[in-house]
Amino acid sequence: MTPVLFIRLPELKRMLGGISTMTVERWEKRGWLPRRVRLGPNVVAWPAHEIEDFAKRLMAERQNGTTDTMLEDGDIEDAGGGAHP
């Protein structure tokens, strides 16, 4: 059996281009980002393979020209350092 690797919040945010915690929560609530797993009373993480699948889906959407359908005002402010026009 292959062990499941988990990604904690700081690494997840870095992997997704420096997005904020609020963006992670918003994407998760909307069902775009895989749901977190509670590992302990104060510890949550995301299965690495699910985050990899999410990133692959974003790349496929980019190739199809549909990535912007996932983003709304305020969803990309964190990566670019300012609000999306």
Detailed description of the structure:
The protein is globular and about 40 Å long. By secondary structure, the chain is of the alpha+beta class. The chain has a three-stranded antiparallel sheet with strand order 1-3-2. The chain has four helices and three strands; from the N terminus they run E-H-H-E-E-H-H. The protein has one domain.
Which terms would index this structure?
about 45% helix; three-stranded antiparallel beta sheet; alpha+beta; globular; about 80 residues; disordered C terminus; single chain; 3 strands
* Secondary structure category: alpha+beta
Report the biggest beta sheet as strand number plus sense, adding barrel if it closes: 3 strands, antiparallel
Low-confidence stretches: 77-85
> Order of helices and strands, N to C?
EHHEEHH
Tell me the fraction of residues in β-strands, as a range.
Answer: 5-15%
Helix content: 40-55%
* Tally of alpha and pi helices: 4
**Over all CA atoms, what is the radius of gyration?**
14 Å
In whole angstroms, the N-to-C terminal distance is: 47 Å
Secondary structure tally: strands: 3
Strand order of the largest sheet: 1-3-2
Q: How many structural domains can be distinguished in the coordinates?
A: 1
Task: Sum up the overall morphology in one term.
Answer: globular
What's the overall average pLDDT, rounded? 83
